[in-house]
């Protein structure tokens, strides 16, 4: 890496040898669609796999949630997942996790202490809880910190679903601290970059826009009838699908209400709504709320519920669908939209956050402003009643999805890492009052393996 102990040399054109990735609140090995597992899990794992293929070793630190979790698991060649014991294995809500950050930090620092100084060349934290840990690890190890927020409290609180719980002030304060301390910030879209600047005062010169992707070897067009046969779906029906965590933020109720309105307009419609996912977040308070809503709307016979699906099975879900709906109130990007389009399925999505990038309006799907039932029903009707238009969108969707791959994401992240390393070695902190000024001394104080 260009470093000898006792001498600090810049790492201008090199990439890190080994990266410590922090994902405190959810494991990259967890099944997306339940609990707190979602797109971030996919992002962390898939980007790590791609970086490992480029010769960068990745160790992902996450909180153990079961006594059966092995301390270390190999997720892929060159990618290790370290399950850190921090608090009880079960029964902790994400809102309780700040109380366990000290225990988690201790586990991370103890692992690093088992190795020679300089074992990790960079820290990449995901979500604000991990950013708090990364901030401490960065200062202790004398390496740069790159942070990806994934979601922001200030943005979520501006677009809450009815009855949903606002994010606490403590989270927004914690996010502000991480933004100020990070050497570089990775945003999914320019919209998210603007939000970091507007709501958190981030330095735009320290933000890198790197779009997430999809596994284009797995998510690709296939035989619709064969996929429906695997899932037990009628080949004659028009299937509109929701995939994700069942909670107010993701707004699956918007789809159900729109479907009920559409069926009321055309009782002979062959519409079938497929909901794939499990209760999560504030949705855990009423885990059967969506089933009860379907019944109260009189469309229970038209709605099929499936639990979260493994990736290969999820590809069949997308292929079996005529249309995938992403009606979220807030999305930093929306991986479901890209995965669906990669399988040749158009997407109807709320015009929020990164969905305006993930979906090409009028070419690979539709973007709907707001969440009014009438607007969503009309938008749905404009597609399901026009098979020719739906087919044209489906033909273009995979071509659009080709612009988003985990290979591209890994390339962007590695460039962000390079910039972070160069700036770090030159001591270019965000402020002359930053505690990181003169941080090159950290390496000098660790000469000969002695830890200050």
From TrEMBL:
Reaction catalysed by this enzyme: 1D-myo-inositol 3-phosphate + UDP-N-acetyl-alpha-D-glucosamine = 1D-myo-inositol 2-acetamido-2-deoxy-alpha-D-glucopyranoside 3-phosphate + UDP + H(+)
This enzyme's EC code(s): 2.4.1.250
Transmembrane segments annotated in the record for this chain: none
Family annotation (SUPFAM superfamilies): UDP-Glycosyltransferase/glycogen phosphorylase
Domain of life: Bacteria
Residue ranges occupied by any Glycosyltransferase subfamily 4-like N-terminal domain in the UniProt entry: 38-213
All copies of domain Glycosyl transferase family, residue ranges: 223-397
Signal peptide: none
Annotated Mg(2+) binding sites: 318-319, 321, 345
An example Gene Ontology molecular-function term: D-inositol-3-phosphate glycosyltransferase activity
Keyword Nuclease: no
InterPro entries per UniProt: Glyco_trans_1, Glyco_trans_4-like_N, Mycothiol_biosynthesis_MshA
Keyword set, alphabetical order: Glycosyltransferase, Magnesium, Metal-binding, Transferase
Chain residues that bind UDP-N-acetyl-alpha-D-glucosamine: 31-32, 39, 245, 250, 309, 331, 339
One BP annotation, GO: mycothiol biosynthetic process
Residues where 1D-myo-inositol 3-phosphate binds: 25, 36-41, 94, 127, 151, 171
Functional summary from the UniProt entry: Catalyzes the transfer of a N-acetyl-glucosamine moiety to 1D-myo-inositol 3-phosphate to produce 1D-myo-inositol 2-acetamido-2-deoxy-glucopyranoside 3-phosphate in the mycothiol biosynthesis pathway.
Subunit structure: Homodimer.
Cross-referenced PANTHER family: D-INOSITOL 3-PHOSPHATE GLYCOSYLTRANSFERASE (PTHR12526:SF510), GLYCOSYLTRANSFERASE (PTHR12526)
Recorded family membership: Belongs to the glycosyltransferase group 1 family. MshA subfamily.
Annotated protein name in UniProt: D-inositol-3-phosphate glycosyltransferase
Source species of the chain: Rhodococcus koreensis
């Amino acid at each position: 890496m260009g470093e000898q102990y006792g001498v600090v040399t810049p790492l201008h054109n090199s990439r890190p040898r080994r990266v410590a990735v922090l994902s405190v609140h959810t494991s990259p090995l967890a099944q997306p669609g339940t609990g707190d597992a979602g797109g971030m899990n996919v992002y962390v794992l898939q980007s790590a796999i791609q970086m490992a293929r480029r010769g960068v070793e990745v160790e992902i630190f996450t909180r153990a949630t079961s006594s059966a979790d092995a301390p270390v698991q190999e997720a892929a060649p060159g990618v290790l997942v370290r399950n850190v014991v921090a608090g009880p294995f079960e029964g902790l809500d994400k809102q309780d996790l700040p109380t366990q950050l000290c225990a988690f930090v201790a586990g991370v620092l103890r692992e690093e202490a088992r190795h020679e100084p300089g074992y990790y060349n960079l820290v990449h934290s995901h979500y604000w809880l991990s950013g708090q840990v990364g901030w401490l690890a960065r200062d202790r190890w004398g390496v740069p910190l790159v942070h990806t927020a994934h979601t922001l409290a200030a943005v979520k609180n501006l677009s809450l679903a009815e009855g949903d719980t606002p994010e606490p002030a403590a989270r927004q304060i914690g996010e502000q601290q991480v933004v100020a301390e990070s050497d570089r910030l990775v945003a999914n879209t320019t919209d998210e970059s603007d939000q970091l600047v507007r709501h958190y005062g981030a330095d735009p010169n320290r933000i890198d826009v790197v779009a997430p992707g999809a596994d284009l070897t797995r998510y690709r067009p296939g035989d619709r009838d064969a996929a429906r046969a695997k899932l037990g779906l009628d080949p004659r029906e028009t299937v509109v699908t929701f995939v994700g965590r069942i909670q107010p933020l993701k707004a699956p109720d918007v789809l159900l209400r729109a479907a009920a309105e559409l069926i009321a307009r055309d009782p002979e419609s062959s519409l079938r709504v497929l909901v794939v996912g499990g209760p999560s977040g504030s949705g855990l308070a009423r885990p059967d709320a969506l089933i009860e809503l379907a019944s109260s709307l009189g469309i229970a016979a038209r709605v099929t519920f499936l639990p979260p699906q493994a990736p290969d099975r999820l590809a069949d879900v997308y292929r079996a669908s005529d249309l995938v709906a992403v009606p979220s109130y807030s999305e930093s990007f929306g991986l479901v939209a890209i995965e669906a389009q990669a399988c040749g399925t158009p997407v109807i999505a709320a015009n929020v956050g990164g969905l305006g990038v993930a979906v090409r309006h009028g070419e690979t799907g539709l973007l709907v402003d707001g969440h009014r039932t009438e607007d969503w029903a009309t938008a749905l009707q404009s597609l399901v009643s026009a098979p020719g238009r739906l087919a044209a969108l489906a033909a273009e969707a995979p071509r659009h999805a080709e612009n988003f791959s985990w290979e591209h994401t890994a390339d962007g992240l590695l460039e962000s890492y390079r910039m972070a390393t160069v700036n770090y070695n030159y001591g270019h902190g965000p402020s002359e009052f930053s505690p990181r000024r003169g941080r090159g001394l950290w390496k000098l104080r660790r000469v000969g393996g002695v830890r200050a």
